[in-house]
Each structure stands twice: as structure tokens, then as C-alpha cells.
Sequence to fold (355 residues):
Amino acid sequence: MSKFFSKRHSALVPYVPGEQPQATRKYIKLNTNESPFPPSPSAQENLAAAGRNLQLYSDPKCKRLTELFAEYNGVEPEEVLMTNGSDEILNFAFMAFCDEAHPAVFPDITYGFYPVFAQLNRIPYETIPLREDFSVNVEDYIGIGKNIFIANPNAPTGIALTVAEIERIVASNPDNIVVIDEAYVDFGAESCIPLIKKYKNLIVTQTFSKSRSLAGARLGAGIADRELINDMNTIKYSTNPYNVNAMTMAAGIGALTDDEYMKNNRDVIISSREYASDELKKLGFEMTDSSANFIFAKHPGIDGKELYLELKERGILVRHFDLPRICQYNRITVGLPEQMQALVETVREILEEKA
Fold:
């Protein structure tokens, strides 16, 4: 770091994104939980049309997109804030509601950006260990009196809480916000969005990156009581009023109008997840019960990092984490059926060679 870098950030450990290979080699890319399907036809058409007017600023209120997203989710436009990916709405929540008097808490194994946002914004935080089976123990969060961040389904485990379990957490912490990060909700979990009508301390975040195939466009949303949305808008308009660019906004509108396209693709991904899970279990793998678009698995006969490296050498990228509790696991994004077949066959070859 340079001599000019602020000392207040000297201990900051940045988030490490998954590999985005730039080399000429073509990989089967199963490491960053992207959709294997392209954006919907309407999303692509809208995006191209919006590109002809980039001399103009985008609508800072995202009015049409906000209205469509609100209608789709059964809420009012004033209860929605569209953002540059769901990472931005998560950061807004840390900035708007957390401080030394209102620390943050989240699981010890979860989305890696939570501790980064806490450190970046100089917010005290603590982590609560997951159970041995990697599930969230709801009792650990009942009446805890801190601002709570929970990914549901969790990442990288894929395990989901029920809406009833989340409601217990929200109801027991009326003086603190509870943020439920639903990046993967479309693949097998139930959304908590209806609960925002009942609880003024709940924020639900979602993304267009996964089920709606817009990871490269960067579009997310926060859904909450309008007073919380107003608070986060204060942060938005104090940092970047034009946070969603015109092409992303247009693509998001198209993706919402092509809902059947999303649902069909989601069903293929769920089917491919079940196929790959069953086949990997036959090969001796142990895994969590995933409700996301990925599998979290380990094999007793091969080290987790070794398997990751072997797969990479053979042209398949998966995600490996060095954290002690999960270093034997790999997170495998669910791709197209033929990609998952290739994964299973390659893993079988590796295990046979190691036997």
C-alpha cells in the first residue's frame, strides 16, 4: 500500500471475487453462481435500445423499473429501492443503520462481503457460529439486540430458513433492523417480502444476477417499510444519485416482463442441481441440502483444494474456500445439464485415478 493510504483502512481485508478467467482457454465455469442462460430476449432488446441514448443521465428514481418490481412483489413503489447490484443495498444498510451503538451480527460462514462492509464503515460486528451441519441456529438470534444480516438461502452452504423462523428473529428484535439477503431465493426458498407489511425493522434484499441472468448488468433491490427506504435513499443521494445506469435499468425492465423465461430456466437449474447432487452422492460425496443454484460438497477421499485444482487443470472451475471449517468443501455452481454431466464424469475420473 502507498504512504497515502488512510490508516483507518490499513487493516481492511477486501472481498475476493471468484475467478473470471481472461485466458484463451475455455472453461466450464461453475465458480461464481452465474446463470448458465443468457439474459431474456426482452432484456437484450431493451438494453440495445437504451444504448442509443447514453448521452443522457439515467433516471435517478428508476421509476418504471421500481413500479414493475413493486407490482411483481406485491408491495408499493415507496417500499422499493433499486441499486447497483444487491451489494450496494447491503452496504447502504450497513451505512444507514449500523454504528458503535448499533453493531452488526451475522453467521461465521456466510457471504464474504458482510465483514468487509462492517470493516469499511468502521462498524463493530460479531459472528455467530453455524451449527455443525452448517445450519443457522435461530435461537442464537432471538432478542439479541443487534442489527442482524442473514443470507437466506445462506452462501456458500445453500441452506435456507423458513419464513416462520425468520419471523421469530424479526419479531424478537423490534429495536434493530434485520436484513434478509435473498440472492438465491428463487431456487428453492420462500421469500420474506410479505413480512415487510407487518414489521418495520425488516429489510429484504434481492438481485437480478442469479435467476434473471443479469450478473454483468449489476442490478439489485431492497424491499422494506418506506421509512427505511427513505433512510437508505438519503445514503444513495449522498453518494451516487445515478446508481443504476440506463442500460441496466432497461435490461431489468425486460427481465421482469419475461417472467416465464426466468421460471423455465430456474426449473432447469433446479433439475440439474438434483441430478448432479444424486450423481455426486453415488460417488461418495457429502453435501448440504441446497436451496440455491449451487452445491456445497466434500469427498472423504480427496482434499478439497486438491479436487478444486484437479478440476481446474481439466477445464472446470469451481469455488474453493480456505476457511478452516469449510476447506474440505467446494461450492459448485449449477450449470446446464451437459455441463453438470461433464463435471460428474470428470470427478469420477479424478477419484478413479486417486484410488
The chain has two domains: 23-37+260-354, 41-257. The first strand starts at residue 28 and ends at 29.
